Amino acid sequence: MEKLLVPVIYGSVRRDRQGIRAARYVMQRLEARGIEAVLVDPLEKHLPLLDRMYKEYPRGQAPALLEELADLFRRADGFAIVSGEYNHTVPPALTNLLDHFLEEYFFRPAGIVCYSNGRFGGVRAAMTLRACLAEMGMVTIPSLLPVPNVADAFDEAGAPSDPKTDERTAEFFDEFVWYMNALRDARAKGVPY
């Protein structure tokens, strides 16, 4: 069976962003499970503000970056969404990135990793994100991976400061992998539309 493929979609373009540490951690945990993880960082991708969705371009005429991401997303078995919390909701860079696509997400699970510099770990944004991802055709797994005090939770490379972090997050990743395998098998048998 082919390796699972997971775009790790990160949502901040701020100068002093701390959540990239959580995204790096997610990449490491997925790779440790033999999963191909690809970081999708809006700071590196330089997506324009949404004017046309990928599907609104005539076939073969979308900008190269949108073609690249559409190809990656179509091949994905699931999406790890790493979101900060801005004013109790999702960062605009994440919304902009996600909104460029639609059908590429259908019938795939999303694992939500949320973070903040406060005690609540971005869970308020995660609730908004859960509804948004469902509307886009993704199935969000029941568990969340909230990261409170993100600036202190990981070093710059994504290594956790607490040695028990891997143990505490194992259930989240177990569940995410289960959903990816289950939905990959189901998609192979056909989808409703």
Summarize the structure.
The chain has 193 residues and is α/β, with parallel strands linked by helices. It is 40% helix and 18% strand. It is globular, with a radius of gyration of 16 Å.
Overall geometric form: globular
Number of domains: 1
Distance between the termini: 25 Å
- The fraction of residues assigned to DSSP E strands is 15-25%
Largest sheet: 5 strands, parallel
What's the average pLDDT?
96
Put simply, the count of helices is 7
Beta-strand segment tally: 5
Structural overview:
This protein is an alpha/beta fold. The protein has one domain (5-186): 3-Layer(aba) Sandwich (Rossmann fold), CATH 3.40.50. The chain has helices at 20-32, 42-45, 64-75, 92-99, 123-135, 150-153, 165-188; strands at 5-10, 36-40, 79-83, 108-115, 138-147. A five-stranded parallel β-sheet has the order 2-1-3-4-5, with helices on both faces. Helix 1 links the parallel strand 1 (5-10) and strand 2 (36-40).
Task: Name some characteristics of this structure.
alpha/beta, Rossmann fold, 7 helices, 5 strands, 40% helix
